[in-house]
Amino acid sequence: MNELALFNDLFGDFADDRYMMPSINLKKVFQEPKVDIKEESGAYTLKMDLPGKTDKDVNIELNHNVLTISSEKKNEKEEKSEKKEEGKWLVKERSYQKFSRSFTLPDDVESDKVAAEVKNGVLTVTMPRKALPAPKKIAIKSA
Fold first, then answer.
1. Which of 49, 22, 44 is nearest to 123 (CA)?
2. Would you state the pLDDT for residue 19?
3. Of 33, 40, 28, which is closest to residue 122 (Cα–Cα)?
4. Which residues pair with 129 in a beta bridge?
5. Domain ranges of the chain
6. Which residues have a Cβ under 8 Å from the Cβ of 34 and sit 6 or more positions away?
7. Is the overall model pTM greater than 0.70, yes or no?
8. How far apart are CA 50 and CA 78, in angstroms?
Protein backbone atom coordinates (compact mmCIF):
# COMPACT_ATOMS: atom_id res chain seq x y z
CA MET A 1 0.00 0.00 0.00
CA ASN A 2 1.21 3.48 -0.84
CA GLU A 3 1.79 5.36 2.43
CA LEU A 4 0.39 8.56 0.92
CA ALA A 5 -2.92 6.88 0.06
CA LEU A 6 -4.00 7.55 3.65
CA PHE A 7 -3.98 11.28 2.94
CA ASN A 8 -6.12 10.78 -0.15
CA ASP A 9 -8.71 8.88 1.94
CA LEU A 10 -8.78 11.57 4.63
CA PHE A 11 -9.40 14.40 2.18
CA GLY A 12 -11.32 12.50 -0.51
CA ASP A 13 -14.67 14.02 0.54
CA PHE A 14 -13.46 17.47 -0.50
CA ALA A 15 -13.57 16.38 -4.15
CA ASP A 16 -17.36 16.53 -3.93
CA ASP A 17 -18.87 19.60 -5.68
CA ARG A 18 -20.32 20.84 -2.40
CA TYR A 19 -16.83 21.48 -1.04
CA MET A 20 -15.19 23.05 -4.09
CA MET A 21 -12.47 25.47 -3.11
CA PRO A 22 -10.53 27.85 -5.34
CA SER A 23 -7.33 26.35 -6.64
CA ILE A 24 -4.06 27.81 -5.43
CA ASN A 25 -0.69 27.16 -6.97
CA LEU A 26 1.23 26.53 -3.74
CA LYS A 27 4.53 26.00 -5.54
CA LYS A 28 4.34 29.52 -6.95
CA VAL A 29 3.23 31.01 -3.63
CA PHE A 30 6.18 29.57 -1.72
CA GLN A 31 8.91 29.69 -4.37
CA GLU A 32 8.64 33.22 -5.71
CA PRO A 33 9.75 35.88 -3.25
CA LYS A 34 7.50 38.91 -3.05
CA VAL A 35 8.80 42.34 -4.01
CA ASP A 36 8.11 45.98 -3.23
CA ILE A 37 9.04 48.56 -5.88
CA LYS A 38 9.10 52.24 -5.03
CA GLU A 39 9.36 55.13 -7.47
CA GLU A 40 11.09 58.28 -6.27
CA SER A 41 12.20 61.37 -8.15
CA GLY A 42 15.83 60.22 -8.42
CA ALA A 43 15.59 56.42 -8.47
CA TYR A 44 13.51 53.27 -8.38
CA THR A 45 14.05 50.91 -5.44
CA LEU A 46 13.21 47.22 -5.48
CA LYS A 47 13.16 45.24 -2.22
CA MET A 48 12.82 41.46 -2.15
CA ASP A 49 12.67 39.24 0.93
CA LEU A 50 15.29 36.50 0.69
CA PRO A 51 15.54 34.99 4.18
CA GLY A 52 18.68 32.95 4.74
CA LYS A 53 20.30 34.06 1.46
CA THR A 54 23.57 35.92 1.07
CA ASP A 55 25.07 37.80 -1.85
CA LYS A 56 26.67 34.52 -3.02
CA ASP A 57 23.25 32.83 -3.30
CA VAL A 58 21.66 35.47 -5.58
CA ASN A 59 22.30 36.22 -9.25
CA ILE A 60 21.21 39.53 -10.81
CA GLU A 61 21.40 40.23 -14.55
CA LEU A 62 20.37 43.23 -16.61
CA ASN A 63 19.85 42.54 -20.31
CA HIS A 64 18.09 44.97 -22.67
CA ASN A 65 16.15 46.72 -19.86
CA VAL A 66 15.07 43.40 -18.29
CA LEU A 67 16.28 42.88 -14.72
CA THR A 68 16.36 39.18 -13.73
CA ILE A 69 16.87 38.09 -10.13
CA SER A 70 17.44 34.39 -9.56
CA SER A 71 18.77 31.97 -7.01
CA GLU A 72 19.50 28.28 -6.89
CA LYS A 73 20.64 26.51 -3.77
CA LYS A 74 21.11 22.80 -3.24
CA ASN A 75 21.41 21.48 0.30
CA GLU A 76 23.10 18.16 -0.32
CA LYS A 77 24.85 18.04 3.04
CA GLU A 78 23.73 15.16 5.21
CA GLU A 79 24.49 15.25 8.88
CA LYS A 80 25.81 11.97 10.18
CA SER A 81 25.23 10.96 13.74
CA GLU A 82 25.92 7.88 15.75
CA LYS A 83 22.22 7.46 16.52
CA LYS A 84 20.48 5.54 13.73
CA GLU A 85 17.40 7.35 12.44
CA GLU A 86 14.23 5.29 12.27
CA GLY A 87 11.77 5.45 9.41
CA LYS A 88 12.09 6.51 5.82
CA TRP A 89 11.39 9.71 3.95
CA LEU A 90 8.09 9.74 2.05
CA VAL A 91 8.44 13.30 0.78
CA LYS A 92 11.55 15.48 1.08
CA GLU A 93 11.17 18.81 -0.72
CA ARG A 94 13.19 21.19 1.43
CA SER A 95 16.64 20.36 0.12
CA TYR A 96 16.45 22.34 -3.13
CA GLN A 97 15.39 25.93 -3.69
CA LYS A 98 15.20 27.75 -7.01
CA PHE A 99 13.45 30.86 -8.28
CA SER A 100 13.73 33.43 -11.05
CA ARG A 101 11.85 36.70 -11.45
CA SER A 102 12.19 39.20 -14.28
CA PHE A 103 11.16 42.86 -14.42
CA THR A 104 11.07 45.14 -17.46
CA LEU A 105 12.62 48.43 -16.41
CA PRO A 106 11.39 51.84 -17.53
CA ASP A 107 13.36 53.71 -20.20
CA ASP A 108 14.62 56.30 -17.70
CA VAL A 109 16.77 53.83 -15.69
CA GLU A 110 20.53 54.39 -15.92
CA SER A 111 21.45 50.75 -16.49
CA ASP A 112 25.18 51.25 -15.88
CA LYS A 113 24.52 52.59 -12.35
CA VAL A 114 22.19 49.86 -11.03
CA ALA A 115 23.42 48.62 -7.62
CA ALA A 116 22.31 45.82 -5.31
CA GLU A 117 22.96 44.63 -1.76
CA VAL A 118 21.67 41.91 0.56
CA LYS A 119 21.32 42.82 4.22
CA ASN A 120 19.42 40.90 6.91
CA GLY A 121 17.68 38.71 4.31
CA VAL A 122 16.43 41.62 2.21
CA LEU A 123 17.75 42.28 -1.30
CA THR A 124 17.70 45.97 -2.24
CA VAL A 125 18.24 46.97 -5.87
CA THR A 126 18.66 50.69 -6.52
CA MET A 127 18.09 51.91 -10.08
CA PRO A 128 18.97 55.59 -10.60
CA ARG A 129 16.82 57.55 -13.03
CA LYS A 130 18.08 59.72 -15.86
CA ALA A 131 16.31 62.70 -17.32
CA LEU A 132 14.41 61.82 -20.46
CA PRO A 133 14.47 64.34 -23.30
CA ALA A 134 11.45 66.61 -23.38
CA PRO A 135 8.99 66.14 -26.25
CA LYS A 136 10.11 68.00 -29.33
CA LYS A 137 7.74 70.23 -31.30
CA ILE A 138 7.83 69.50 -35.03
CA ALA A 139 7.25 72.44 -37.32
CA ILE A 140 4.79 71.87 -40.16
CA LYS A 141 5.56 73.44 -43.48
CA SER A 142 2.80 74.58 -45.73
CA ALA A 143 2.98 73.71 -49.39
1. 49
2. 55
3. 33
4. 109
5. 40-75+93-131
6. 48, 49
7. no
8. 23
